[in-house]
């Protein structure tokens, strides 16, 4: 494994794209081809980097490590053309990259016998994260080139220069030792630093709120079988309301909510 470590050690920027073809089929009713999946994920990542940092990245600037298993899962480690100066910059990038989303049209499997209402419900858009936002912590292990996971000897990480019509940054030579050296995260001295984001994100997730019951409310009126209902109502309000919520049970069928 390659190790992105330390609080002050700079390392090359990276994103991890990972998923299972079966999960895509379950959500969509079909499976996009590998070129489409990789192209859509990279487009979303590149757009987010431009929107959030003002840094222009092109597909031809990316070094791609491919650990996909045919028919089972797709797995790409993308090396970016800039470096994180320290752990703080790396963690902040993980918060920013949450904005990168991929959207696919969901269809109904023609083999399934579903009613019109179910078909209408299923024929919408499914959303997927374009990259894993949880791989930017200290001492993060990332798989080296030409290595496989212990559980699957056929799952080998290899360099990738093309995928269909997609053209990525070329690897230096065909020599595996040189390619391995080129892919190391700490091999980043010649890369520019990623600037600060336009809008830094809080460590706390946006729209996170605290449910506080009104101390004067009639707590006995809250029905025991719906003890978690107030929290579920707050979940519905989070996308449009921030701050604290005051929950008051008037009786066992009525909730008053003050935002």
What does this structure look like?
The relative contact order is 0.18. This protein has helices at residues 21-28, 34-53, 87-96, 116-122, 176-183, 229-237; strands at residues 2-4, 11-20, 63-66, 73-84, 101-105, 125-129, 140-142, 148-149, 152-156, 158-160, 162-163, 166-167, 211-213, 245-251, 254-258. Residues 109-116, 118-122 and 204-217 have low confidence and may be disordered. Strands 2-4-3-10 form a 4-stranded antiparallel sheet. The chain has a 3-stranded mixed sheet with strand order 13-14-15. Strands 1-7 form a two-stranded antiparallel sheet. It contains 6 helices and 15 strands. The protein is globular. The chain is 24% helix and 27% strand.
Continuous helix count:
6
The main sheet orders its strands as: 2-4-3-10
Q: Kindly state the number of beta strands.
A: 15
Radius of gyration from CA coordinates = 23 Å
Biggest pleated sheet: 4 strands, antiparallel
H/E order of the elements? EEHHEEHEHEEEEEEEHEHEE
Helix content: 10-25%
Which ranges are low-confidence, i.e. pLDDT below 50, for 5 or more consecutive residues?
109-116, 118-122, 204-217
How far do the termini sit from each other? Answer: 48 Å
Which structural class do the helices and strands define? alpha+beta
Strand fraction: 25-35%
Mean pLDDT: 81
Shape: globular
């Amino acid at each position: 494994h390659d190790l992105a470590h330390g609080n002050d050690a700079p390392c090359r920027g990276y994103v991890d794209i990972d998923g299972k073809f079966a999960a895509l089929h379950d959500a969509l009713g079909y499976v996009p081809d590998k070129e489409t999946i990789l192209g859509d994920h990279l487009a979303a990542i590149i757009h987010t980097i431009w929107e959030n940092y003002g840094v222009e990245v092109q597909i031809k600037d990316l070094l791609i490590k491919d650990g996909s298993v045919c028919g089972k899962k797709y797995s790409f480690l993308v090396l970016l053309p800039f470096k994180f100066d320290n752990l703080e910059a790396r963690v902040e990038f993980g918060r920013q990259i949450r904005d990168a989303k991929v959207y696919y049209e969901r269809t109904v499997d023609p083999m399934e016998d579903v009613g019109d209402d179910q078909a209408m419900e299923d024929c919408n858009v499914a959303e997927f994260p374009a990259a894993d936002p949880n791989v930017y912590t200290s001492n993060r292990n990332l798989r080296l080139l030409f290595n496989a996971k212990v559980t699957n000897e056929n799952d080998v990480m290899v360099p990738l220069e093309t995928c269909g019509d997609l053209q990525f940054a070329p690897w230096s030579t065909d020599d595996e030792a040189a390619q391995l050296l080129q892919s190391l995260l700490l091999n980043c001295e010649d890369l520019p630093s990623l600037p600060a984001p336009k809008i830094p994100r809080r460590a706390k997730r946006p729209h996170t709120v605290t449910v506080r019951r009104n101390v004067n409310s009639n707590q006995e009126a809250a029905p025991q079988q719906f003890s978690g209902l107030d929290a579920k109502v707050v979940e519905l309000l989070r996308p449009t309301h921030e701050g604290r919520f005051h929950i008051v049970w008037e009786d066992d069928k009525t909730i008053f909510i003050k935002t």
